Amino acid sequence: MSDARVDIPYAQTGDAEFRDYIALLKPRVMSLVVFTALVGLLVAPGSLHPIEGLAAIIFIALGAGASGALNMWWDADIDAVMQRTARRPIPAGKVTPQEAMSLGVALSGMSVIMLWLATNALAGFLLAFTIFFYAVIYSMWLKRATPQNIVIGGAAGAFPPMIGWVAVTGSLSLEACLMFMLIFMWTPPHFWALALFMKSDYHKANVPMLTVTHGRKATRTHILVYTVALVPFALAAGFTSIGGPVYLTTALALNLMFLHGAWAIWRRDEATAEADAYRVEKRVFRFSLYYLFVHFGAILVEAALASLPAYAEFALQFKILEVF
User: CB–CB of 261/283 below 8 Å?
Assistant: First the structure.
């Protein structure tokens, strides 16, 4: 496997538009970052002035965008040979690698400094570490060096709710760590399900995805193992201040469905999967896209309901019963 970046000349079309620069920021990924960070911020004990809260979310989003731009700059060589990424701005010739790098660096510095000024130093530090982790540790090192790239690199996407929490409280907590672990443990089965039906992309790009290095049966086993390991973290949040009956019921249903999907993937062989065009793998991948949004949505619902006295009393009694 190649562990070094390959410089490829890109034919510039000279017709870059504003949307091409927006695409560098990976807006679809940013939407998950913004939502989970917002949930972390809203459910944290304490409060920020609405203007400070809005500023925090904007700067966290810009930090995520900076990570995306730096990732696209570094990965432009492999993006050019992968079907699902070949139309990104750099391999498509719309934006130069140098422009992407400059945008990423500029947004990195601005987002970190402004989040620090708007909230606190720990939040700024965590955002800086997140950008560094994604751009350097994951993109420049792990992605091309180990089949565990997704496992370790998943930490970068797991920090936003923790940053939102810290922006309000100035400190870490069990709740922030559980939100982190929920995303961290979800990432491997989510991406490995994708890798199963996008198999040719990673082979062509020489990216050491688990499907390439250990085979497809091993990947199916890993999906099941990591999904099983995810469940305790997802359920544990229901027994903390951010959880409650609504969240716990939602988490139970979602995780049973995810486990069923992972089991179905594990039982299949390649001949069966190819015969039905990876129908099960695609279904589980689509489900995993909603998995996090619904979990964090349930956390937000719990926070909203907790402001109602009758529900707060019911939730307190529910948690007391859980202890026994």
Answer: yes
Please report the beta strands in 175-231, taking only residues with DSSP state E, as ranges in sequence order: none
Give the tens place of pLDDT for each residue, 179-216.
999 999 999 999 999 889 876 667 777 778 888 888 88
Q: Could you give the domains of the chain?
A: 19-171 (1.10.357.140), 173-324 (no CATH)
Task: Tell me how far apart the alpha carbons of residues 285 and 136 are, in angstroms, rounded to a whole number.
Answer: 27
Helix, strand and coil in the chain, % to nearest 5: 75, 0, 25
How far is Cα 155 from Cα 153, in angstroms, rounded to an integer? 5
Q: If you ran DSSP here, which 8-state letter would residue 92 be given? A: T
Q: Token digits for 255?
A: 């995780």
Check if the beta carbon of residue 265 is closer than 8 Å to that of residue 284. Answer: yes
Confidence of residue 174 (pLDDT cuts 50, 70, 90): very high
Closest to 151 (Cα-Cα) out of 210, 84, 220, 67 = 210
Q: How many whole angstroms separate alpha carbon 102 and alpha carbon 83? A: 26
CA-wise closest residue to 310 among 228, 264, 245, 261: 245
Helix axes 121-132 and 97-118, enclosed angle (nearest 10) = 160
H/E stretch holding 275 reads helix 270-275
Other C-beta atoms within 10 Å of 204: how many?
A: 12
**CB 56, CB 115: distance < 8 Å:** yes
Across the range 58-71, mean pLDDT stands at: 96
pLDDT digits (tens, 9 = 90+) for 95-140: 999 999 999 999 999 999 999 999 999 999 999 999 999 999 998 8
The token pair at 37 is 């960070």
CA distance 162 to 233: 15
Judge whether residue 9 has pLDDT over 50. yes
